[in-house]
Every structure is written in structure tokens, then in C-alpha cells.
Design a protein that fits this description.
- This protein has about 550 residues and is an alpha+beta fold.
- The protein has a domain of about 140 residues: Jelly Rolls (Sandwich).
- It is about 25% helix and about 20% strand.
- It is built from 12 helices and 19 strands.
- The strands form 5 sheets. A 7-stranded mixed beta sheet has the order 3-4-5-6-8-7-19.
Length: about 550
């Protein structure tokens, strides 16, 4: 099945709750549309303080409502009216089901099952299985905000989400629902349901499946996060939502994880589209290494990106972001072997072995760009000691270079360099892995932070001998004639000094996916850039 990349649309989870329970009110005002995906990156701004407008009209099982929802069959998304009926009310949620889906894709048993998991309990493996998704999310990430309608609970709208170009969507959260209809209309003709609401697709995985419950936990974090730090960058927000799935006992993003393991140099830190596999691992690593209280501090920190993470990392004694990122990258490599040290492992789910670039022989050579917070892996053969030499342009840029020898409890991780220079990787009877990390922290976190890098690895030559020029095996071809010419000229200048080499660099930018094209289309349509994400929607996981 053709699926859109999740960075294109961020999923929001809806829940089907099917028990009984009298409940307070729902929005008195019009319940409106959810903006589409996280694709459509824009900060939602309100001209007035967020103040509840009073109690909404009472809602009970059987209450009918009209909602706005996105029509995702077209791009940019249109709007459609959805007629829905309340099928459950509880202490933390109000579940509405689209009338056309009731008895077709959503049965009473589905609503009851989702209600139980949201209100009462979660699976073994959750932080506290005796609490539901709602309570766990509120206790770890923050209490639910009060909607404009005065409602403290979350509306879960189970609704059919149309497909676009074969791509299916799990659900979404629309930040425009947190501002008034008039304000939403003033910001690009959007709509607002003026209540806390999540949208869950009834035409994907079964509504009461673990997969959709994980989507619910993911999107609920977005809803909680929005009023506390509405302009948080996507990769941090998505990492926290991935952590929310693990907190609630639903580590469902295994397909994204496997895709990341095949391309482990996919960047975590980006200005725009995120890797859900990277975010799944990073959010889980934050949670397991620092504990649930740290997640709350990150949500409430007004700074964004790495600046919003570092106070929590420093308080936990884990240093600055670059050092923690390096630990995370090491853990991603070592976690697949049994017995990994606590600092370099995962408890919540198994991690597949990473596909690493293999050096066919020494000396070897490659060159390219190294972006800030970008990591590269390079597997070196077993054997005698290896000398590595690293050159960065400009030479004032900082980096992190480590060696990983062995696996399991006997793995040895050695920090080799924090700046351009030379170092020695000790002899070993097993393969050795070099890990290079870019750390130009004071520059932009992506794009503009790239620096030319050249990492060379070779066995120290016998006394008085040098390897012959041109004896390196190429690991990666240059992407263009210009790159080839630049690399040739540079290598001719540095080869005598560096004595053979392996270059580690960031991956080449790929053509935009369908989802990326949709996001670019939306940005042109609305005149907005990649600031905050008014909507977090997510496409179905890759199959």
C-alpha cells in the first residue's frame, strides 16, 4: 500500500469509548474542522488570552452534533461537515462516532474497549497499568487544557478520513480548535470546533486495536503540549508524542523503527519533516534514561529545540545535548545485542541491528557535508590498531568522534576527538565502529550548519613508510561533478598529511515525498513557513 511519510501528516488520535457515564458539557459553539497534517506547518496565534467562555451545553450518550473535519481527499485539504452522535462520556473523555460509521466500522464493543483503555487501565509495560491513557498522559506531560467551551475533557471523534493518492491517515490534532472560530477564519479561512478534540480514522486499523490506542496516546501529548509551548519544533514535539506511546504501553511504531534501522544516519534534528523512527527511539531514550518527570520539564520549557532540552539534560547530569545525542547514537547501535549496559540499551522494546556502511579495506576514503547534530556510522574491519585523522572546514567547527568496539556487556566506547585532529582505534578481534557527530551548536540546527568533513582511517604504516597516493577504496560517490571536483582538489591537498582516509558525512537530500510536496503546497497556499505545527496529523505506518 502506498503510504505517505508521517512527517507529512502527524497523527492525532481519537478514541472510541463505549461505556456509560454521565458527563458535563460539550462545546456550545460550532464544532469545526481539524486542519490537516503536520505538513501544514504554521503557528496558531490567538489575539486574546485563552479563557473558557463558560459551560457548554450538556452532553450525554445520544446527543447529536455537527463537527467540521478535514476533507483529505484533496490537497490543500477542504472541509466537510460530519454528523456524529455521542456514544460514551467519562471522567476524561467524550466519544462521538460519525453516524455513517456507526455499526459499520465502529461497533459498541469497540467504543467500550477504547473507553476502558482511555479511562481505566493500560497494558502491562505501561508506566502504571492501573491507570488509563488519559490519566497517565496528564500525570506525565501535564493536565488537559480547558477548552474554549469550558470543557476539561477531550472529545474523541471517530470519523472516516479520506485517502489522498493512496495514502491513508491515522488521525490528527488541530490546534485551530483551541482558538475561536473568528480567529481561525482570520488565519487562512480555517475553522475551529472551539473545544479540545482529537480525530481518529475509522477506515484504518481497527479502532480498538493497540495500534490505534498508541496513536491516541501520541496525539493526546500534542494536545497537552500545545498551550504550554505552541511553537516547539516538530522533532522535539514528535519525540515526546512517541514517548507518550511508550509511557502508555503502546510502543507501536515498529515499522518506522525498522525503516530507520536500515538508514540509521537519517537525521533526528531537522527544521521540517521528521523521521518517526528516529523520534521513536529518541523519545524512548529520553524517557528511559531521564524518567517521566524529565518529559514534563521539557514540555514546559519555553525554549525550543536543543535549547529546550539542555536544562533538563544538565540537571540530570548528562551534559549538553551533543553528548546526550552521541550516547543515544551509541545505544542505537549496541541495543540489538543482549546485555547492553543501561546507558546503551532500551527496555521498552527490541531494537533491530542497524545497517552500517562497511569499509571494504584500508585505507579508504569518502568526503561530504556534516550537519550539526548529524551522526554517521562507519564499520571498520577487525585487526591491528587503526589511526584516524579528522579534518573539518572550517577548522574551528566542533565535532564528536567515538569508537565502539565489541557488543553486549563487554562493549567499549571511547571518545576519540572533539575537534579536528588524529587518534588511534585500538586493535580488536571484532569489527569496530566509528561514530562521527556534528556539533555546530551555535549555528542553525539544520541546513545552514553543514560543514565539509573528511575522516580518514588507516593502519599506522611501518616506520618510514607511507601508503601510495590513490590507494583508498571509495565508499560513496560524489553526488555531482562540482562535488567531485571540490573533493579531488581538497583531498590532493590534505592526503599527504592525513595518510589515507575514510570520510563520514551527512546523507544527500532526497527528492520530497508525496507528503513533503503536500506540505510545500500548503505553505505556498497559505503563505506560511515551517514554524510551529497547527495540526499534527500522521499517515498510516509504512507497510
Amino acid at each position: 500500500m502506498n503510504i505517505l511519510s508521517r512527517s507529512t501528516l502527524v497523527v492525532i488520535v481519537l478514541t472510541a469509548l463505549g461505556l456509560e457515564a454521565a458527563s458535563p458539557a460539550l462545546a456550545a459553539g460550532p464544532l469545526c474542522p481539524a486542519t490537516a497534517p503536520e505538513l501544514f506547518s504554521r503557528t496558531v496565534r490567538s489575539s486574546a488570552p485563552r479563557v473558557a467562555r463558560g459551560r457548554s451545553l450538556p452532553v450525554e450518550v445520544g446527543t447529536a452534533r455537527l463537527f467540521w473535519a478535514w476533507d483529505l481527499a484533496v490537497m490543500p485539504p477542504g472541509f466537510k461537515r460530519v454528523s456524529a452522535t455521542c456514544r460514551f462520556t467519562g471522567a476524561r473523555s467524550i466519544v462521538f462516532v460519525e453516524d455513517a460509521e456507526w455499526g459499520v466500522t465502529v461497533q459498541p464493543a469497540d467504543v467500550a474497549a477504547v473507553a476502558d483503555r482511555f479511562e481505566i487501565s493500560t497494558p502491562q509495560g505501561a508506566l502504571d497499568p492501573a491507570r488509563g491513557i488519559g490519566d497517565l498522559t496528564a500525570s506525565v506531560f501535564g493536565e488537559f487544557p480547558t477548552g474554549l467551551d469550558g470543557e476539561h475533557r477531550v472529545v474523541l471523534l471517530l470519523v472516516k478520513l479520506d485517502r489522498f493518492n493512496g495514502g491513508a491517515f491515522d488521525g490528527y490534532f488541530n490546534a485551530f480548535d483551541t482558538i475561536s472560530e473568528s480567529e481561525a477564519q482570520a488565519q487562512g479561512g480555517q475553522h475551529s470546533n472551539e473545544t479540545n478534540i482529537l480525530y481518529l480514522n475509522t477506515r484504518g486499523s481497527p479502532i480498538s486495536s493497540d495500534y490505534m490506542l498508541g496513536v491516541l496516546a501520541h496525539e493526546l501529548q500534542h494536545l497537552v503540549h500545545q498551550p504550554r509551548d505552541p511553537e516547539e519544533v516538530s522533532w522535539v514535539n514528535e519525540s515526546l508524542s512517541e514517548a507518550a506511546m511508550v509511557v502508555c504501553g503502546y510502543p507501536i511504531d515498529t515499522a518506522h523503527l525498522e525503516r530507520f534501522a536500515r538508514k540509521p544516519e537519517t537525521p533526528l534534528v531537522t527544521d521540517g519533516f521528521v523521521s518517526y523512527g528516529a523520534c521513536f527511539l529518541f523519545g524512548t531514550y529520553l524517557y528511559e534514561q531521564l524518567g517521566p518527570a524529565a518529559l514534563r520539564r521539557i514540555v514546559e520549557d519555553p525554549a525550543h529545540g536543543t535549547a529546550g532540552l539542555e536544562p533538563t539534560l544538565l540537571e540530570a547530569g548528562r551534559g549538553q545535548f551533543g553528548a546526550f545525542l552521541e550516547d543515544w547514537a551509541v545505544a542505537n547501535h549496541l541495543a540489538s545485542a543482549p546485555g547492553a549496559a543501561p546507558r546503551y540499551g532500551y527496555r521498552s522494546f527490541p531494537v533491530p541491528a542497524l545497517t552500517l556502511r562497511q569499509v571494504p579495506g584500508l585505507p579508504a576514503e569518502d568526503a561530504g557535508q556534516l550537519a550539526a547534530h548529524k551522526v554517521r556510522y562507519l564499520r571498520l574491519p577487525a585487526g591491528p590498531a587503526i589511526r584516524v585523522a579528522l579534518q573539518i572546514e572550517p577548522s574551528t567547527a566542533t565535532v564528536g568522534l567515538s569508537s565502539i568496539v565489541g557488543a553486549g556487556p563487554d562493549a567499549a566506547v571511547t571518545r576519540l576527538l572533539t575537534a579536528p585532529g588524529t587518534a588511534t582505534v585500538p586493535a580488536a578481534t571484532t569489527d569496530r565502529v566509528l561514530l562521527l557527530r556534528g556539533t555546530q551548536a551555535r549555528l542553525r540546527e539544520t541546513g545552514g550548519s553543514s560543514r565539509r568533513s573528511s575522516l580518514r582511517a588507516d593502519r599506522p604504516p611501518p616506520t618510514g613508510q607511507r601508503p601510495l597516493p590513490g590507494g583508498a577504496a571509495a565508499l560513496q560517490r560524489p553526488s555531482s561533478t562540482a562535488t567531485r571536483a571540490t573533493r579531488t582538489a581538497r583531498d590532493a591537498a590534505v592526503a599527504p598529511a592525513l595518510n589515507g582516509c575514510v570520510n563520514v558525512s551527512s546523507t544527500t537530500r532526497r527528492p520530497p515525498s508525496t507528503g513533503q510536496a503536500m506540505k510545500a503546497w500548503w505553505a505556498r497556499y497559505t503563505g506560511t513557513g515551517p514554524a510551529g505545527s497547527p495540526v499534527t496529523s500522521r499517515p498510516t505506518q509504512p507497510g
